[in-house]
Amino acid sequence: MYSIQIKNKAVQFRKQGRSIYEVARILNLNPTTVSHWCKSIQLTKELRNKIDKHGKLKARAAMLIYTEKLREQRLYRVRVNKKEGAKIVGNLSSRDFLMIGLGLYWGEGYKYENSELGFTNSNLDVIKFYIKWLSLFKVSKDNLIFRLTINNVFRVQEKIVKEFWIKNLKIKKEQFSVTTFTKTNLKKADVSNLISYHGILRIKVRQGGGIRDKVIGALEHINSCI
């Protein structure tokens, strides 16, 4: 049995434009009890709109909290999975390093086009790894020739794109041959995001034919073991 003071307070809150559930939460009551006490109260249109607006704001806030919780859970799973992935790999041996590079060259390197040791990619981390991998064959960075392929849409950005590679790879602009421009259709998102566009970079080793033969021989041996 509730006191008359509690009931009056519930009615007062309701007349102020608070929802049934909000009144019940404030006074620690059952919403059904509050609804019964306040069923005769006629709310004005303004108060009904106030309650409706407040309810939507609370629902939106609750949704934001729920979404943020899901995001945190997803980020936690990503961190755990990344740690597991790093644990699976462990420390890289020189052979591991060699095999990873061969896999990269198998996918992105020159194999049948000519006798050059060439590699093409657009990912900075992949290219950094490839250049370091070349050191296994005693290839120095100064012995590399670079060529950019840029979509014609970004022709005016050629200098900026080239400076990106020069800065991040710590190479010289004199190592670049003439840029190639293509007319491949790009998505609107690609065209609008100049910051993330760095073109495609080809890396060729000067007089690298002998090394290429060794790499191709290694890949052919791997293929024969499949």
TL;DR?
By secondary structure, the protein is of the alpha+beta class.
Please explain how this structure is put together:
With 226 residues, the chain is of the alpha+beta class. It has 9 helices and 4 strands, in the order H-H-H-H-H-E-H-E-H-E-H-E-H. It has a 4-stranded mixed beta sheet, covered by helices on one side.
Helix content: 55-70%
Quick one: how many beta strands? 4
Radius of gyration: 33 Å
> What order do the helices and strands follow?
HHHHHEHEHEHEH
Alpha carbon gap, first and last residue: 81 Å
Described by the principal axes of the CA atoms, the overall outline is: elongated
* Main pleated sheet: 4 strands, mixed
Structural class: alpha+beta
Q: Give the oligomer, counting copies of the same chain as homo and different chains as hetero.
A: single chain
Content of β-strand: 5-15%
Strand line-up of the largest beta sheet: 1-4-2-3
Low-confidence stretches: none
Total of DSSP H or I helical runs spanning 4+ residues: 9
Mean pLDDT value: 86
Topology summary:
Elements: H1 4-15, H2 20-27, H3 31-37, H4 45-89, H5 94-108, E1 118-121, H6 124-134, E2 144-151, H7 158-169, E3 180-182, H8 188-192, E4 200-205, H9 209-224
Parallel strand pairs: 2-3
Antiparallel strand pairs: 1-4, 2-4
